[in-house]
C-alpha cells in the first residue's frame, strides 16, 4: 500500500513540475494525433458527404464497409502499414518505418473509417430535409455537399472529437510501426505499456493521468458543442 501511495505521489510531482521527459512524450502524442485526425478529416469528410448525397450502384456496400472498418483491429492496421512501409514493401523507399510519420499513417487509417461512417450518418439525415430544395434549384452534388458540411458543422465537430479520442488512446498499431523508440516515437500509450512492464509506475501513472485529462477535455468539448448546437437550433 505504501508503494502504491508513493507511486501516486511521484506521479503528481512529475505533473506538477512538468518533467521534460513527460512533456516530450505528451507533445509527440498530441502532434501525431492532431496530424492523423487532420488527414482523416481531409479524406473522410468529403467521402462521407458523397455517400450521404449520391446514389449509385454499390453505395450500400461502401456504407457497410466503412461501418465495419470502424471496428478494425488496431494490430491489423499496424501490421498492414508495417508491410507497406518495410524495406520489402511498396512504400519502403520512403523510409518512414519507425518514425512519427508511420505512426501518423497508422492512426489516420484507423480514424478515417470513423470519420466517413459518422459523417455519412449525420449528413444523410440532413440531406433528407434538403433534398427537395436541392433538386428544385438544380444544385450540383458537390455544392450540396459543401452546404451540408457547413450546416452540420457542430455535429461534425463531435465526429472529429470522437476520431481524436480514438487516435490519442491508440497503442497497438503505433507500437508496431513506431517501435516505441525513446526521443523518437515514444507516445503516451506506448510509454505507459513500457514503464509498467519495467515497474516504473510513477511515470506510467503520470502519463495515464494526462490521458484521462485529455479524455475528460474531449468529452467536455463534445458536450459543449452539442449544447451550442441546440442553442443555435432554438435561436
UniProtKB/TrEMBL annotation:
<feature type="transmembrane region" description="Helical">
    <location>
        <begin position="97"/>
        <end position="118"/>
    </location>
</feature>
<protein>
    <submittedName>
        <fullName>ABC transporter permease</fullName>
    </submittedName>
</protein>
<feature type="transmembrane region" description="Helical">
    <location>
        <begin position="33"/>
        <end position="54"/>
    </location>
</feature>
<keyword id="KW-1133">Transmembrane helix</keyword>
<dbReference type="GO" id="GO:0005886">
    <property type="term" value="C:plasma membrane"/>
</dbReference>
<feature type="transmembrane region" description="Helical">
    <location>
        <begin position="61"/>
        <end position="85"/>
    </location>
</feature>
<keyword id="KW-0472">Membrane</keyword>
<dbReference type="InterPro" id="IPR000515">
    <property type="entry name" value="MetI-like"/>
</dbReference>
<dbReference type="InterPro" id="IPR035906">
    <property type="entry name" value="MetI-like_sf"/>
</dbReference>
<feature type="transmembrane region" description="Helical">
    <location>
        <begin position="154"/>
        <end position="181"/>
    </location>
</feature>
<feature type="transmembrane region" description="Helical">
    <location>
        <begin position="201"/>
        <end position="225"/>
    </location>
</feature>
<feature type="domain" description="ABC transmembrane type-1">
    <location>
        <begin position="26"/>
        <end position="222"/>
    </location>
</feature>
<keyword id="KW-0812">Transmembrane</keyword>
<dbReference type="InterPro" id="IPR049783">
    <property type="entry name" value="ABC_perm_TupB-like"/>
</dbReference>
<dbReference type="GO" id="GO:0055085">
    <property type="term" value="P:transmembrane transport"/>
</dbReference>
Amino acid at each position: 500500500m505504501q508503494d502504491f501511495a508513493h507511486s501516486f505521489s511521484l506521479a503528481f510531482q512529475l505533473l506538477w513540475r512538468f518533467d521534460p521527459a513527460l512533456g516530450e512524450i505528451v507533445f509527440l502524442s498530441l502532434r501525431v494525433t492532431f496530424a492523423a485526425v487532420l488527414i482523416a478529416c481531409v479524406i473522410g469528410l468529403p467521402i462521407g458527404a458523397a455517400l450521404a448525397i449520391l446514389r449509385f450502384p454499390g453505395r450500400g456496400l461502401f456504407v457497410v464497409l466503412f461501418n465495419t472498418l470502424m471496428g478494425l483491429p488496431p494490430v491489423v492496421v499496424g501490421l498492414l502499414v508495417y508491410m507497406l512501409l518495410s524495406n520489402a514493401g511498396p512504400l519502403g523507399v520512403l523510409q518512414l518505418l519507425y518514425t512519427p510519420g508511420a505512426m501518423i499513417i497508422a492512426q489516420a487509417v484507423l480514424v478515417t473509417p470513423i470519420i466517413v461512417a459518422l459523417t455519412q450518418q449525420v449528413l444523410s439525415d440532413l440531406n433528407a430535409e434538403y433534398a427537395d430544395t436541392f433538386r428544385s434549384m438544380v444544385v450540383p452534388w458537390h455544392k450540396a455537399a459543401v452546404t451540408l458540411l457547413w450546416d452540420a458543422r457542430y455535429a461534425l465537430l463531435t465526429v472529429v472529437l470522437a476520431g481524436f479520442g480514438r487516435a490519442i488512446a491508440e497503442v497497438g498499431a503505433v507500437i508496431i510501426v513506431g517501435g516505441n523508440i525513446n526521443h523518437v516515437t515514444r507516445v503516451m500509450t506506448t510509454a505507459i505499456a513500457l514503464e509498467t512492464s519495467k515497474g516504473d509506475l510513477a511515470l506510467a501513472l503520470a502519463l495515464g493521468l494526462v490521458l484521462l485529462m485529455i479524455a475528460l477535455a474531449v468529452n467536455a468539448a463534445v458536450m459543449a458543442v452539442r449544447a451550442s448546437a441546440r442553442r443555435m437550433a432554438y435561436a
